Structure formats: C-alpha cells, structure tokens
Amino acid sequence: MKIEHVFFDLDHTLWDFEKNSELTFHKIFADNGIAITLQDFLEVYKPLNLEYWKLYREEKISKKALRYERLKKTFDAVNYTISDDLIDKIAIEYIDNLANFNHLFDGTFELLDYLKEKYTLHIITNGFEEIQSKKMMNSKIHHYFDKIITSDSVGVKKPNPKIFNYALESAKATKESSIMIGDSLEADVQGALNIGLKAIHCNFNNTISTNKNILSVTSLLELKQYL
Fold first, then answer.
1. I need a labelling partner for 150 at 20 to 30 A (CA). Which of 17, 126, 186, 208 fits?
2. Is the separation of the CB atoms in 209 and 201 below 8 Å?
3. C-alpha to C-alpha distances, 180 to 6, 21, 68, nearest whole angstrom
4. Which of residues 82, 98, 114 is at a domain's end?
5. How many domains does the structure of the chain reveal?
C-alpha cells in the first residue's frame, strides 16, 4: 500500500538535541556561577544521559529521578562539589531554557517542505510534554505536523507498542500506509518494526548496525530517495 503518513521522532532526528543542550548548559552554568569546564562536564554527561533515558524508557526510574540523577552522577564523576538544592535548581532551569535554543539538523526545512506536499506528517516523541511543543514552535516546525504524540500523554514510552498503536489510531492511519523515522534503533526503529510498521533509521553518527536489513540514512535529505 502507498505510504500516506510519516511519523517522526523529534530529538536527535529533526531537533539537534546535543547542540541545543550544550548551549543550555553554557547559559545556566554561567547564570549560577558553576565553575567547571563545560566540555569536561559534557564528556561525562552525554553517555550518562543516554543511560538514564534508557532506564526511563523502560519504566525503571521516574522523570524526577532522571532529571536529578543524571546531573548528580556527572558532578560526582568530575569531582565538583554541589548541593542537592542547586542540582534541583539546575534541573528545573535546564528544562525551562532548553527550548529557547532551536538548532535543527541540516536539511530539516527542505525535507519537511518536500514531504508536506506528499504525506501527512506526525511526531511521536518520548520527550517531556511540557517542552516538546515549545521546541517545535520556537524552531518554526510545529505547523508541519498534524498529530504530536508524546509519551507523557499516552502514559508509555517508545518502544512500547501502545504508543505506536495510539499514534496510528489518533492519525486515523494504518500500519501499511505509515512509516516511522527516528534516530534510536531501539525506541524508534525496532519499536515500529515490532508492530509491523515500516521504519527508517536516522544514523547521523554513521554507526555500524548489526542488522543489515534495517534501512538507514546518514542525513535528512537522503530520506527523499525513499519517500
């Protein structure tokens, strides 16, 4: 069946999370007098953040624990003494400021303009409800999308089948007429494939996949070859 609906992940797929996150930390560290080399902090924080997001996806930790623990563990690892109160303050300010930085991956607007003429576009994201729409509004991509499905609104996170089925139902789409596009092999690609939904992996870091049957691209504009 012909593709009619294209579902996108947001962070790390269209919205350049790492760049925007780095700019956010730069601001809030300056605002709070955190005397630490940002690159030293980020070198530890980035893999820890991915680890804690995996635990969060698997329902093993709460949103509150995710926000606190990823910071606490990083500050401990770089031997920076900081109070719990200040960690909590930074965690709040990080969420409050993150959407104020709006770098998108190269080709985002060109791709969305191209796809919008051919398909109905949607978002499925594990990001926090209170910030995802703000990211999209501030980066001027909100209007491209019909349905914006967040894990907070559904109550489960990708790769749980429930969020994909909810998204299809919400969009009045079928598995056969839809495709999922995202950066996470586990959450986006395998999650979609597990319910019979087609998927494309945004492999922007050009990592080697053990599954050669998964369709992948190394840039957004490469998607035009398939859609």
1. 208
2. yes
3. 6, 25, 31
4. 98
5. 2
| Closest listed residue to residue 127, CA positions, set 89, 86, 99, 162 | 99
Answer yes or no: do 119 and 141 share one domain: yes
Sequence-separated (6 or more) residues with CB below 8 Å from residue 206: 218
Sign of CA dihedral 173, 201, 118, 134: positive
Q: Which backbone phi and psi does 94 adopt, to 5 degrees?
A: -60, -50
Contacts of 35 (CB under 8 A, 6+ apart): none
Amino acid at the residue 31: D
Same domain flag for 11 and 48: no
Domain boundary pick from 98, 119, 142: 98
Per-residue pLDDT of the chain (227 residues; tens, 9 = 90+): 699 999 999 999 999 999 999 999 999 999 999 999 999 999 999 999 999 999 998 999 998 999 999 999 999 999 999 999 999 999 999 999 999 999 999 999 999 999 999 999 999 999 888 899 999 999 999 999 999 999 999 999 999 999 999 999 999 999 999 999 999 999 999 999 999 999 999 999 888 766 778 999 999 999 999 99
- Judge if 183 and 111 occupy the same domain: yes
pTM confidence score:
0.93
β-bridge partners, 40: none
